[in-house]
Amino acid sequence: MKETDSKRILVTGGAGFLGSHLCEYLLAQGHDVLCVDNFYTGSKRNITHLLPHPRFELLRHDVTFPLYVEVDEIYNLACPASPVHYQNDPVQTTKTSVHGAINMLGLAKRLRAKILQASTSEVYGDPQVHPQAEHYWGHVNPIGVRSCYDEGKRCAETLFMDYRRQHGLQVKIARIFNTYGPRMHPNDGRVVSNFIMQALANEPITIYGDGSQTRSFCYVDDMISAFDRLMATPEGCCGPVNLGNPTEHTMLELAERIIGLCGSRSDIVFKPLPSDDPARRRPDIALARSLLEWEPHIALTEGLSRTIAWFRELRPVLVEEEAAAPNVQGRRERSLRAPSLSK
Fold this sequence. Notes:
The chain is an alpha/beta fold. Helix content is 41%, strand content 16%.
């Protein structure tokens, strides 16, 4: 990339799972990257290898407070994204989605910068339409235990569209479906990380419900490529655009595949289905195919193999940390018991 093509790019939530991969990708493209994170769910472990890079900068900051920096583009990924984390402090989760969006949109307005919002398939709630296309308005409980995240992201989409209409801002809205890969938080209660951690420890694999619930899993590298393509679309293209893998898998199928890939002796146990958890979730990505010329290419078995390899390397580190701080084990056990089908 020519130096004249290089941009200054802000990634909020940059030390998180998706954010760290995005920072790495943008640096490889020749851009200057400002990673902003308050480390509520993000981890320095995710971005330690980037710290020596001359075009990488890290700033500890909470997006619920205004931020004054000079950048050309903004990726707003800041928000807890797993039920364990966003239900732990639901008020702060809503504030992060809503106040964070207002602050980042205000920054983008001042700078006339393009801004991408990491929204979510959770805006569809427990869908009555399958698969879910962007024109579907959703079926969401506004007062349930998941509402802090679901409705917070819906409100953020509203703000992005109103800033576009009222202020002519260049906005992009990505509706992210289940994504997995290396650097997932090992104790966040998401289904892929839960199953892998349990399988590697030969512990029982916990399935909520009868295992017939379905999800569609997109490998992180495919998702990051989609972010880049969406940000590069012309000014009139704002979204929302569904980003995810349209291949559907049951929870029982996922558990059995992970057990096999891990060479695990784990049994499968079934527990009651949690409140407001969608029975089916699969994206209609026709718009992404036509608008972005994008679709995922990494198959589930390949992606899981890469993810399992990363968790294998991480486990000794986690064991050492748990030995040094016994209370961490209790937090891990609680998180592994938490319902997590949607993620």
